[in-house]
Amino acid sequence: MIPTKILRAPLLRNQLRQAVQRRSIQASVKKERAVAREDPSFSDLYQPSTSPSTSSRSPAVTLRDLRPQYNRTYTPFEKRATNVGPLRSDNDHALSWDGSNLVLSKFGSDTNTAVSQWWLRDHCPCSICMNQVTRQRQVNHLKGLSNAPRIRNANVDAAAKVIEVEWNDGHRSIYDQKFITRKQSPELEAVRRGNTPLKLWGASIAQSPPEVHYSELQAGRYGELMEKMRIHGFCFVPGTPATPEASEAMLKDIGPIRETHFGGFHVVTSDLMSKDTAYTSEALEPHTDTTYFSDGAGLQMLHLLSHEHGRGGESLFIDGFKCANQLYEEAPELYQALATYGIYAHATGNEGVNMQPCDAVPVLRHDHLKTELLQVRWNNADRAGVAAPMDKMDLWYDAASKFQELLDRKENQYWFQLKPGTPMLFDNWRLLHGRSEFTGLRRVCGGYINHDDYVSKYKTTNYSEADLFAATVSG
């Protein structure tokens, strides 16, 4: 006779297995509910059935919505919209000394913030700590971590708006009050980046494109040119002599001309003198230049010197920032794909040249906070590998295809005919440029300037020395 205990073993195992499964399901439901409470984007994905149960079993888990609310990790202009200079006086904060710390208070708020004493000492503006000409540090306050600077006493002169600080090592510092209160100012970051209000545009800009006459530049007045470049992304300079020499001199007045494997300032003809499609008469799709560099060129000049025995060759401008903004509004999940997964590009047609960026860079490049679009990098001809995992590859191609569709919209395209004597300058981090096919012989001169040099020219011609000092030296 078989023992009863052995006969019951399969039944016990089945009951145990079912109990484990029930606990697993209950744990999964509990976990999903917890996730829903913590992250609203999951709130409509899984929900228990609200219909009354006719059995003693737990309510069924029903898949309600396959379209979860999208978490917008990247934004194009959330910060840029209000983050513009010049600096304004800060009348919202006050400083006081509580016997141990300098305290920053905001009027109408109960929140007080102690000013970092490390930061304060590191930014001492005296002639011992800082070179008064170069604004560079002359003392390394980072040495001696065990002897962190401490304030022995401080005097806040509200009338003079200065703070006198005596340190525990006997050193004395005098700070302008606004130097401290502006530390949190969004305008400070705007001046540092050379930000301006953005004007996104489409085909209608043909009615009144930005321009500054060459005579203004001859008089040394580059401020308006640089401001229009930052606002619109491009500017024409009518009245320029149609010579390489005059064009090069104007470009050098903005900043050092960048040397590449094409040379520095160059004259382009349609005879494939360099192995690049720009040196042919073929049509060029809208693109940004130098995507194969880790640091793509910032400003570019192109000046048509002559076009003989032929026709065609209309130029095309597209505001890449506007198309990015359209992508963000129409398909935020695709925007994030182009902002997340980098791509490589290459320049390999010339002997001895194999150029690629040191890392894959996204088409839509943002600041570290992901709140401001800094650069659009788009060149289908030079595109190489896509640095996306295989299970995300189709998502990237969907996003790239959608972005291409936005570039192809007629309302986003500004077509015009270049003329000798009117060079065009444009922001290669923002604008895409192209060209229609042409016949005959064209000579075009041009060159690149690094982005930092280009923005530096804008800042030094549009901001006061005091604002530049505040944005450059404060940390």
Automatic annotation (TrEMBL):
Gene Ontology cellular-component terms for this entry are:
mitochondrion
Q: Which biological process annotations from GO are given for this protein?
A: carnitine biosynthetic process
Q: Where is each TauD/TfdA-like domain found?
A: 197-446
Q: Which residues form the Gamma-butyrobetaine hydroxylase-like N-terminal domain?
A: 107-176
Feature: compositional bias, Basic and acidic residues: 29-40
Instruction: Tell whether Iron is among the UniProt keywords.
Output: yes
What are the protein's UniProt keywords?
Carnitine biosynthesis, Dioxygenase, Iron, Metal-binding, Oxidoreductase
Task: Identify the pathway.
Answer: Amine and polyamine biosynthesis; carnitine biosynthesis
The GO molecular function terms of this record are: iron ion binding; trimethyllysine dioxygenase activity
Tagged with keyword Repeat? no
Q: Per the record, what are the reactions this protein catalyses?
A: N(6),N(6),N(6)-trimethyl-L-lysine + 2-oxoglutarate + O2 = (3S)-3-hydroxy-N(6),N(6),N(6)-trimethyl-L-lysine + succinate + CO2
Q: Could you say which cofactors this protein requires?
A: Fe(2+); L-ascorbate
Q: Fetch the InterPro entries from UniProt.
A: AlphaKG_dependent_hydroxylases (IPR050411), GBBH-like_N (IPR010376), GBBH-like_N_sf (IPR038492), TauD-like_sf (IPR042098), TauD/TfdA-like (IPR003819), Trimethyllysine_dOase (IPR012776)
Q: Which ranges are annotated Low complexity under compositional bias?
A: 48-59
Q: What is its EC number?
A: 1.14.11.8
Report residue spans for region: Disordered. 23-60
Q: What class of enzyme is it?
A: oxidoreductase
- PANTHER family annotated for this entry? GAMMA-BUTYROBETAINE HYDROXYLASE-RELATED, TRIMETHYLLYSINE DIOXYGENASE, MITOCHONDRIAL
What family does the Swiss-Prot or TrEMBL record give for this protein? Belongs to the gamma-BBH/TMLD family.
Job description of the protein: Converts trimethyllysine (TML) into hydroxytrimethyllysine (HTML).
Protein name (database record):
trimethyllysine dioxygenase
The protein's organism comes out as: Elsinoe batatas
